Structures
1.
Amino acid sequence: MIHIQGVTKSYGQGNLKTDVLKDIHLTVSEGEYVAIMGPSGSGKSTLMNILGALDRPTQGTYQFQGRDLSQMEAIELARVRNQSIGFIFQQFQLLSRLTAQKNVELPLIYAGIRGLKRKEMATTALNRVGLADRRDHLPSELSGGQQQRVAIARALVNQPDLLLADEPTGALDQASGDNVLDLFDGLHQEGKTIVMITHDSEVAARANRRIDILDGRIKETSQAGGSV
Amino acid sequence: MRVWENIRMALDAILAHKMRSILTMLGIVIGVSSVIVIVAIGQGGEAKLSETFTGAGNTVTITPAMKVYEKSNGELPPDFFTERDLQQLKWIAGVEDVITTQMESGDLYYRTKDFKGAMIYGINTNAILKADDRKVKTGRSFEPADYRGGNAVALITPSVQKKLFKNKSGIDKIIRVGNQPIQVVGILEEAEGLFAMIGDNNIYLPDKTWTRIYGQADISDIKLKIDKQYSVESVGKKAIQTLNENHSTKGEYEVQNLEQIGKGIRNVTNIMTAVIGSIAGISLLVGGIGVMNIMLVSVTERTKEIGIRLSLGATRSNILVQFLTESVTLSLIGGLIGLALGSLIAWLIGILSPLPTLVSLPVAIGAVLFSMIFGVTFGILPANKASRMDPIECLRRD
Ligand SMILES: Nc1ncnc2c1ncn2[C@@H]1O[C@H](COP(=O)(O)OP(=O)(O)O)[C@@H](O)[C@H]1O
Ligand SMILES: [Mg+2]
């Protein structure tokens, strides 16, 4: 599903030029549950943004589902993000003015799904994360754990093939974090491909494959349970 | 994405900052409402002015030019107005109705009293009276049966009534017109406007009655009832042109008072345009800059929202359209409030002061369209800025 070859990402020019990612090679197959681990500033989020078609590599190629994203037009990338990828962020990134339901409907708006169908799909996704009864609440009226579950519902609502989670439990207490990870387990069992960033090895242990990144390089890939 | 979707998002965003949105709209509200008020006063004045010449029925009269009479010793040449002319005049855009009257001057008698040199009109509809601003003061107007049967009835003007009946009303009295007995059924009000100036010695008969007395006559003038949406001046000009072409003549047909109508209207219009130009220009420019400013603030404030939307699959044009819709909606609401406020003020001026006011549909539509164009013009810069943001930078914001 993901095939990255020789990817480099640099910021700045000349003397100020810094390579945040250095010659990354990475392959993730369909149905895998991968944890990317590394200390703060090691380049995890940068890698994730490239995986999520939000950013382009400075060098190297990125093939997603057999298509070379580094060659794609911006409008096609938007479509990939909308249809094939679901993002989950550490800070939830919900729109504070909108109710849970409306937040979950956002990707459907850009997918051109309207009316009753949109409402139904959003409700189904909220059901999946156990928050159907909170659909009319604003994010400020929900706990952190609930907000993150709304964000997961939003990531799932267009039935993407790949879930990208950047420290999804980073802002949560233990119980809420476990709750989120339980959801991921379920999604993994349903066949979703998940790439999750964390700097907590206990969290990483929930995945079935672990990749360590340090100073912009992939250090090692260790198996933590058999990959599918 | 549908337009409606964008409008809903825009309304959400506008309502989220009510106070700010209201203050932003203020410039547009003031701009649009002042334009509406000034145009209303201008058009009211214009309507009043042209009414002086065209009557409440908004009609103009087409007559032969002086030189026609000079050429033919004071007689109207035969076929000066033909049936074909009447047909073609009817087809001119803006002509609602073509009204013809027959007229002879003659003497009226009541017992021992007489009135020499009255204008005796044969009319085929009460619309003619309305066109000339003639209202019945006492008695009654003509009824359909009077026209159908050619009844021997007449309406007279106050000056005729005074001469024949002194201080008696004269209603139901029988007078003689061309040796036929005719019953007076109504007295008209004193004339205003044009008729007051040219004398008011008129008597009106149903056309069939008239024909019985004087025989079938040539048409001596034609009145055109003109649609209020059209300019009296240009429809009048078109009519003259049509007639002169029909008869291969030059300048033999005239619209009464066309020159005064045109000049008066242009005077009012010119002053009006200058005043509107400056007030509208300044207040709308201020309003527009206000919209642009607030939209720029809004874009900066909502950087994170833009990042989130982009990450969920919004395209750059989705974002552009979203913010553009917002500024258009904002200006449009401002424009509509301005329209309502302006109309209210114009209406109040109309009833509280001697200034006549008129808010016309084209002006209202113009104001609405204008505020939308305004929203686009001043929204394009902020919207463009929003659509060019880097999603990663946006998401990093707190
Ligand atoms: N736009 C940018 N310009 C310059 N440096 C950047 C930019 N984005 C990220 N970096 C740098 O890249 C490094 C990796 O950042 P990031 O991928 O966010 O790390 P992580 O998510 O592992 O904490 C950091 O040192 C950060 O300062
Ligand atoms: Mg990070």
2.
Amino acid sequence: MKAGSNLERMLEAGHFAVTGEIGPPKSWDGAVVQHHAKMMKGYCESYNLTDNQTAIVRLSSIAAGKLLLDAECEPNIQIVCRDRNRIAMQSDVLGAAALGIKNILALSGDHQKFGNHPYSKNVYDVDSIQLIQMLDGMRKGYFQSGEQMKGEPPKIYIGCAANPFADPFEFRVTRLEKKADAGADFCQTQCLLDMERFERWMELVRARGLHKRIKILAGITPLKSVKAAKYMRDYVAGMMVSDDIIQRLEKAEDIKAEGVQLAIEQIEYLKKMEGVAGVHIMAIAWEEIVPEIVKRAGLYPRPEV
Amino acid sequence: MIVAERKPIDEILGFLSKHQKIMLLGCGGCVTVCLAGGEKEVGILGSELAMARAKEGRPLEVVQRTIERQCDFEYFEGIRHEVKDVDAILSLACGIGIQTVAEAFPDKVVWPGVNTKFLGVNQNVGVWAERCQACGQCVLDKTGGICPVARCSKSIFNGPCGGSQHGKCEVSADTDCAWALIHDRLTRLGQVDSMREILPVKDWSHSRDGGPRKLVREDLTLESGK
Ligand code: SF4
Ligand code: SF4
């Protein structure tokens, strides 16, 4: 065990894992974070807390992580490379560890151009793969500079993202391999709205044996509207939505119900796919639907580990 | 080359509002090539300024000069006697030239006439693109001759990130993803396997982050001291 988090124990025990996601608010109202956590409590092993997602200033992911711990839910802290240099990041990692946070997820971060401070400077002192290396070094007792840490090293279960829907396609597998080489223990994929492409990606992943080196959680997003699906397809860089999904939603009488049904079918399918270790359900602004999805996908109650 | 763009005329007129006689100083280097501050642009801006001020009823005398390079102290000698008689110098050189003018004429007001944009290349008539950020420790050997520092929106070393699609960067459909270019070029060269290697954390101390940079080459300083 590297950190002994719920998530790590669940994955190491070989159970199909479920993680959720909470977007901290654009205010200091911590009750919002806890409210969302309570809605999903018991249905996921741990919950991602986004780090100023889409480059919009929000309550800090580490502070939100502490709020989650207080609500007896396990946080996955996201850290993006956009806003902080290696000094600030390592300081945050120590702070997070001191608060009892065990899962940390390394990301590049969305460019600030589309956020609420497009005139800001970006940092990118290290990139996401280098951040994984840095986290791995820290849990072995070293700062990035090579200096040895005093006392016990922090216990970290290291996560990362993988995007099978970005280009160049084959390189996406190599990039996951680099993340595994850097020390990542698990990855969560971009939300999966094109099963065919995902399956092709998983084939390449298995061909390299990567699924045995890093736990892969497939990203699931229940769709609420045709408009949202088309927006993601046309305007979000690095996303794909297959035509059959759009058509199914278009034909449905109750689009939301169809979106949920689709998510459940995806999970059922993924449960049988070799190399998929679990799902990461991203239902931002629709957290209350997570229990229903987890239950109907046959993943509730969560196993005790 | 250093790519610059002339500042808007109103901004320049604002700088000059209190002056009656200025020197408009062009540069024969990069800004001539990128059509921002060479002899020709000096001529055009000179008449525009004079005209605008004549209209206001407050004429401005503009002495137009263009020297070989403004980033070299030796070229200022030829204009020193004329600089004495003007209220200020409006320089159309890049930021380096403008500062060198200020250093060469410590008692003279110097105004910037251009915005210095980047180190780049002329791609097409009227189109320039950034190529280098002078990071101080070049990695082009590892990236197929395409710079991730200047050309990736996030300056990452192990791209492309998850925002790369159809060869374009997540920031805009008009921006090529540098890492897609690197990937394609290394593929063409049969070297794409090198992208499996994790490029290490960069030593930014060779860049601006280490403080203002200075280069001293002892082989040359010693020689000149002889
Ligand atoms: S790696 Fe550095 S020196 Fe080389 S082209 Fe890029 S910014 Fe310029
Ligand atoms: S899309 Fe490409 S150029 Fe843009 S930030 Fe990502 S790797 Fe860099």
